[in-house]
Design goal:
Length: 420
Amino acid sequence: MKRPSASLARRSFEADSFPRFLSPRALYIHVPVCASKCSYCDFHSLAVSAYSTESLSALVDATLSRVDELALRFRADDRNGYDTVYIGGGTPSALPRGLLARLVRGVAQRAGKPREWTVEANPESLDESFLEIVAGAGCTRISVGIQSFDDELLAILGRPADSKTARKALELVGRSGLAFSADLIAGLSRKGSLAEEALAIVDSGAAHLSIYDLVLEDGTSLSARAARGDVPLLDEDQAFEERAACEAELAGRGYRRYEVSNYALPDSECRHNLAYWNMDSYLGAGPGAVSTLAGGGRAFRIAESRDHAAYLRGAAAAAAAEEAIPCEEAAFEVLLMSFRTIFGLDLDAFRERFGIDAREVFPLTFETWKARLAPRGENRLALDGKGLDLLNRFLVECLEELERRGDCFPHSVAVPSRRS
């Protein structure tokens, strides 16, 4: 889907100039290591074997230092910690145990007592020592990358763990006392069914599931194989029917689809991801991470460099790409994120932030989609279940209407230079 264009050059930024920005409520740490690269993945990561122990040690220290820089710059430390922390990647559980302990203890010293703290793990590196280290530091939640229990499919996806290892990992985390979530990939033909795999995860004790449709990213080895017809892809109708059957089974167990790809028992939604979907301010540290500061009709984004050498020499700040987000692009991002969830768009918050009612910005699209748009309380508007399945089409129409209207926002997005 085409996004609004932003022709702003990289600019420096002074946090004091933006008193209406929301304080960062969430912290993300990117760990750019994995056991090996999966065939479908275009996230920033390298095989852990590509690093020396000294390099990994320096990378952990540099990432923690970057957290300090960002917290000081955007006054996150004024809030006595964060509401949520998420350590992802990559595969944090692939870190050598001593460095994992140093990372999570360092985060604990900086995070206060978050309401939710998630660490990602893959089955091949999820063991008792991993669980002891993260739980001891204060982690409250584990996110396990399962993807499938079909060994042939796991091989096609380039996953380093087989189904037996995946089931053992779920058993271990289920006994740990920590809350946990697991991921599956949809859109591929598998032995058994997606619903059977989802219910196997439910039976392990997971209160949350993420079921992502496979995306063939350009440049990945899986994309090249699919172009040759070597990947067992489902067609659009088959994929829809499989997901619908899976959703029905999950609903029967009490799991609610609260976001396009996410299902949870009551009060088990991922609070950290909700911060993204609500367009709250958050900080991101580690090569390839992103920070977004939002509020007052403005947005500001920092994309951390993927240059590990820059991180290791303490030049992460200088290497990061910074940009102000124009009002029209920020408004579209609010729509894009809000309508992913069953909670939908907060109309009052949109008006307060952008100085205009969303229904005035997108009158034609909202009218066209009124059969799929449902009120949520007095001030929210959300897509119904069928609307979530058609989300991309809805957003394209919103974007096209926004581009036809041109600038209709009263707020400016001027970005001053950093004061010396």
